[in-house]
Amino acid sequence: MAQYFELHPENPQLRLLKQAVALLQRGEVIAVPTDSSYALVCHLDDKDAVDRLRRIRQVDDKHHLTLLCRDLSELSNYAKVDNKQYRLLKAATPGPYTFILEATKEVPRRVSHPQRKTIGLRVPDHKVLCELLTLHGAPLLATTLIPPDGTEPMNDAQEIRDRFEKLIGAVIDSGACASEPTTVVDLTPMDGGGDPVVIRQGRGPLSLLGL
User: Fold this and answer.
1) How far apart are CA 127 and CA 101, in angstroms?
2) CA angle 161, 126, 80 (to 5 degrees)
3) Please, what is the angle between helix 14-25 and helix 127-136, to 10°?
4) What single DSSP character describes residue 206?
5) For 30-54, how does the pLDDT look when each residue is reduced to its tens digit (9 = 90+)?
6) Residue 103 gets which letter from DSSP?
7) Looking at the domain assignment, is residue 30 inside a domain?
8) What number of CA atoms fall less than 13 Å from residue 24's CA on the CB side?
9) What per-residue string of b and e applies to 166-186 under the rule 16 or more CB within 10 Å gives b?
10) What is the pTM (predicted TM-score) of this model?
């Protein structure tokens, strides 16, 4: 049965965050609030946890998973970023945007796109999630929590627990969460002098990116 952590949205309890981090380090998948909607997250280097995350969402290896990073410095360890791409990233982070970039060798091949060798990356703007990432000390692998039979992301912690309590290790509840997924922008065309490609219009405004 999934554990249920009720955290203060602005001053999350360190004791509970440490318990959540311990679950991640033991290979659990947990549901966390973000600045766009709830997401499922797990340890990047745990193959079994990654496989379980994909099974819960019922997505294959061609579905882009996302690395949640603490800041742009950490993001640049996992993606190849040139100056033009960096300027766009700096304008939109932290915030509700996911960027598709070429993965570096720091990203396990099993979690990058099998043909394109790309990965989704983002720097969230959510107090509780940021504190969790800081305590974890490394990026978390994530996917928007859209149920297999649905099209919209879930945003109610209790409903998530009721539905997935036998499949995940924990749910973090820090109050109301947005219910719109991130805006997804593919920056890889910029490598050849092209323009960014909007894959999904979500919560992040395109105007902030000049698109």
Assistant:
1) 25
2) 110
3) 60
4) G
5) 999 999 999 999 999 899 999 999 9
6) B
7) yes
8) 27
9) eebbbbbbbeebbeebbbbbb
10) 0.93
Give just the sign of the alpha carbon dihedral 103, 105, 110, 116.
positive
pLDDT band at 8 (very low <50, low <70, confident <90, very high): very high
CB 185 within 8 A of CB 100: yes
Domain presence at residue 31: yes
Contacts with 158 (C-beta within 8 Å, 6 or more apart), sequence order: 173
> In the numeric block, which tokens belong to residue 115?
């043909």
CB atoms within 10 A of CB 77: 13
**Domain holding 30: CATH number?**
3.90.870.10
> Which residues is 119 bridged to in the sheet?
101
Cα 33 from Cα 44, distance rounded (Å)? 18
Q: Domain span at residue 103? A: 3-206
Q: Hey, what are 153's tokens?
A: 């992301």
Q: Which residue has the tokens 């099209």?
A: 151
